[in-house]
Amino acid sequence: MKTDDVRADIPLLEKFIYLDAASTTPTPKPVVEAMCDYFYNYNANTGRGAYKIAIKATQKVKDARLKVARFINASPEEIVFTKNTTEAINIVAQGLNFEKGDSIVVPNIEHHSNFLPWLNLKKKGVNIKIVKADSYGIIDPSVIGEAIDESTRLVAVTHVSNALGSVQDVYEIGNISHDNNSLYLIDAAQSVGHMKIDVKKMKADFVAFPGHKGTLGPVGTGFLYCDQAQAKNLNSCALGGGTVANVSENDFQLESFPTRFEAGTKNIAGFIGLGASVDYINRIGLEKIEKHGIRLTKELYTTLSSINNVKCYGDPQNIYGIVSFNINNMNPHDVAKILDEIRGICVRSGHHCAIPAIKHIGAYEQGGTVRASIHYYNTSEEVQKLGETVEEIAKTFGV
Ligand SMILES: Cc1ncc(COP(=O)(O)O)c(C=O)c1O
Hints:
This protein is of the alpha/beta class and 399 residues long. It is built from 13 helices and 15 strands. The chain has helices at 3-8, 29-41, 52-71, 85-95, 116-119, 141-147, 170-179, 228-231, 268-284, 286-305, 332-343, 355-360, 380-397; strands at residues 17-18, 79-82, 103-107, 127-131, 152-158, 183-187, 206-210, 222-226, 244-247, 252-254, 310-312, 322-327, 345-346, 348-350, 369-373. It is globular, with a radius of gyration of 22 Å. Pyridoxal-5'-phosphate (PLP) binds at residues 22, 84-86, 111, 113-114, 158, 162, 187, 189-190, 210, 222.
């Protein structure tokens, strides 16, 4: 599939220049249609009914789990469906039974969703060791190695920074964590659907994924990969329907993994949509998506950084899909608002739920950054239009 074919499946791209893939992506028609098919033709609960459409709904969610698992080189028994990346990380943070004196190593440029769940464990007496990225937002794996000691139970790192686009060497960090007997969690919110993810090669114990970003699935979906060896060590925090094998008035026996982590009725249409979106990404081809992403990211950075009074953050040699920038002396929200008002360009502005990262690059006082982020449906023409409009704004308001 070519970029134009994908654009034809996403009607909102006719009206807007959508450069906010890092927040969420628009859902292509075949994915919406897969969900509509469920709503119109077999809208029943899963894992409960004996009637035909309930069995069909159950099978479709099972198929989706298999598709998602294959997509990241895992088995379906290692996939917990969640409502987003944040829930996936919290399942690990709350389920691992951290104890006083344990330590967790985490970089200082993380999204709040891969930061607050760990910081919160300080209340239990867990030490949070924060390692510093360089000024471009790159984490030297050896710095992680130096922070690990015998008290370290987990290293938690984001693959691609949502604030800066910086790509971390998650493979080398995986080797270091593994060699030091530490558990390893990767936040793949900004990489899945953009580049090949192989959870086994990454030597990850846990990987948290959104369904609604790079994979072009619907909002309200995400998933957690949990290595089978770790499944037994993870306690379920939410209990109820669907999680138990047996119950008496005094006790209960939980179902096996992953069922015991999916309490209550799930986002059935959403997960069917997620399965369809993985098919869709496979039809385009991940290699093609990544190649397109690398080229457009370079164009974005080069175009924006060549404008007078514009500062881009991150190392252009080591970013993917995201360019964070500012116009001198302008609040990023004002820039984003003008881009939308005069050209229908959608970009994110502010702290991007990563206040420590924004402080790290010195953009906190300015109110954060403007962030343009791309996917396969974006074009060079859209990048040029963004550049021309930013230049216009910088000439008029920048100092
Ligand atoms: C790196 C990173 N981690 C976590 C999240 C949270 O994702 P979700 O909204 O799926 O919970 C995001 C969202 O932008 C992100 O970019």
